Amino acid sequence: EKKDTHIQTQPKARLLCVVYTYEAHHTTQLQAVVNTWAWKCDGFFAASTATNTTLGAVDLPHVGDEAYDNMWQKSRSIWAYIHDNYVDDYDYFWLGGDDYGLVVENLRGVLEDHTKESNPYGANENDVPVYLGLQMPQFGRDHFCVGGPGYVLNRVTVKRLITALPACEPTKKTSAEDRCMSNCLRDIGILCGDTADAKGQQRFTGVEPNYLATHKGKRGYYKKVYDFWGKTNGGFKWGVNLYSEQSIGFHNLRYPAFMHRIHALQYPWTCPTNSTIGQTLNATKSDTII
């Protein structure tokens, strides 16, 4: 008797990546994002103060000034725009800043990991909300998804958020859009989900490489943060032991050359051979593992 060896597989989840920026960053930070990782997402746009179709930038008005301390109002506008224009076209939606160097392949790996309750298999089809990011302690109110490495909502969560958003801090002016988002979603029963890997190492990386490698987290606020992570992930860790080999990227890459250089180190031999870093990588390619 011939056995049916056909295995049904879930279609690859469609991912929309969104960054927040403004016009003065179009030729610097946003151009670097477009040059390096944006094209690897299934869809991309930049929420900005001016439209530039070449870069995928959209002039997206919001309440109040275009200022860091008004990020919550900008984020509210972004999620409303995503809902109105893209919610049925994608499965997951990542939002972060223009200073984040995203490793899209590793983010997809997180989204395809259904071993955690925070991202169950078939969540969209079964009307299960998903909200993923780097959990940070919010003393007195459990935890929240910190904004540095961005965070991910699935289609179900976006739709529920838009229903709740009109009554959730509609006039508040603050830079803490990540806390406001977490509080809004918590009020409708959706919590920031854990994204640590199987070794208990963090995959959503909210710092730049040098800080990641050298900061020991032994005092002050970060001592509390590192202790918080250690409670559910195998004990206190720091440096390269804290962060996963499956990291989704780096934060605070605040000038284009930094983002391009990090990208070149992550993807060897992508630089022209006549460039300094291209020559360095080609000269050592037989010994280099990134």
Please characterize this protein's 3D structure:
A hairpin with a 5-residue loop joins β7 and β8. This protein has helices at 26-36, 71-86, 104-111, 155-164, 177-187, 209-214, 220-232, 256-266, 276-283, and strands at 15-20, 43-48, 57-59, 92-97, 101-102, 131-132, 134-137, 143-146, 151-154, 249-250. With 290 residues, it is an alpha/beta fold. Mean pLDDT is 87; it is low at 1-8 and 284-290. The strands form three sheets. Strands 3-2-1-4-9-6 form a six-stranded mixed beta sheet. It starts with 14 loop residues before the first strand and ends in a 7-residue tail after the last helix. α2 packs across α4. It contains nine helices and ten strands.
Q: Can you summarize this structure?
A:
This protein has 290 residues and is of the alpha/beta class. The protein is 32% helix and 13% strand.
Q: How is the secondary structure organized here?
A:
Elements: E1 15-20, H1 26-36, E2 43-48, E3 57-59, H2 71-86, E4 92-97, E5 101-102, H3 104-111, E6 131-132, E7 134-137, E8 143-146, E9 151-154, H4 155-164, H5 177-187, H6 209-214, H7 220-232, E10 249-250, H8 256-266, H9 276-283
Parallel strand pairs: 1-2, 1-4, 2-3
Antiparallel strand pairs: 4-9, 5-10, 6-9, 7-8
Helix pairs in contact: 1-8, 2-4, 2-5
